[in-house]
Design brief:
The protein is 64% helix and 0% strand. The longest helix has 23 residues.
């Protein structure tokens, strides 16, 4: 039987460690991908991912269910990313480190993808990662949450602790910059984000707020 997040959280609150382990298995890859896309460094992203679940485990009994478990987890991870960037103050990466799963950074696979498609997605993922690294952090975070993790504008605003209009502006500016970076590398934006998402050429007030 597959338990929902809500059911696993409820069981975890009652002290069922196996249920929490199932949450870790379910959310470890998305949280790692989020951390890597925001801070751009593999080892540090793994540290952030590990610390996210450690803090979630310690705090799970205080989780009231006022937000989705995933949103609560994203907030922990993003706060840790901010702490890391304030502490380290490192410049964006110039190359993608060996060992990084570039498929995590590429567009979602389509059913029936061939080995050639997979290799192409890995190459594209590396170029997208480098382009993303050139974008200011808050704009990059908004793009990651919207384009890769499918959050709504309101969910992003709640996570970033800012007005809805600020999120739209960050997304507009970030996607405009990303399009420029991708074009510089000879990559079409639709190839990088084939599932759509916010239009970087639209004014913020013209884009959907769902």
């Amino acid at each position: 039987m597959v338990w929902s997040d809500e059911e696993l959280v409820a069981r975890s609150v009652r002290g069922d460690h196996e249920s929490f382990n199932q949450l870790v298995v379910r959310w470890e890859r998305p949280i790692y991908a989020l951390a890597y896309r925001v801070i751009g460094r593999e080892d540090d992203a793994r540290d952030v991912c590990q610390e996210t679940f450690l803090r979630a485990f310690r705090s799970i009994k205080g989780f009231k269910g006022q937000a989705k478990f995933s949103s609560w987890l994203y907030r922990i991870a993003l706060n840790l990313c901010r702490d890391w960037m304030r502490r380290e103050r490192r410049s964006p990466m110039a190359t993608v480190p060996e060992g990084v799963d570039l498929v995590d950074l590429a567009p979602p696979e389509a059913p029936g993808d061939s080995l050639e498609d997979l290799v192409g997605r890995r190459e594209l993922g590396g170029q997208v990662a480098l382009a993303m690294a050139a974008i200011p952090r808050e704009q990059r975070t908004a793009i990651v949450l919207k384009e890769y993790h499918g959050l709504t504008f309101q969910e992003i605003a709640d996570l970033q602790g800012c007005p809805l209009s600020t999120v739209k502006t960050r997304l507009y500016q970030g996607l405009t910059r990303l399009r420029q970076e991708l074009e510089h590398r000879g990559i079409d934006r639709e190839a990088a984000f084939p599932t759509g998402g916010a239009d970087p050429t639209a004014r913020p007030e013209q884009r959907k707020t769902h």
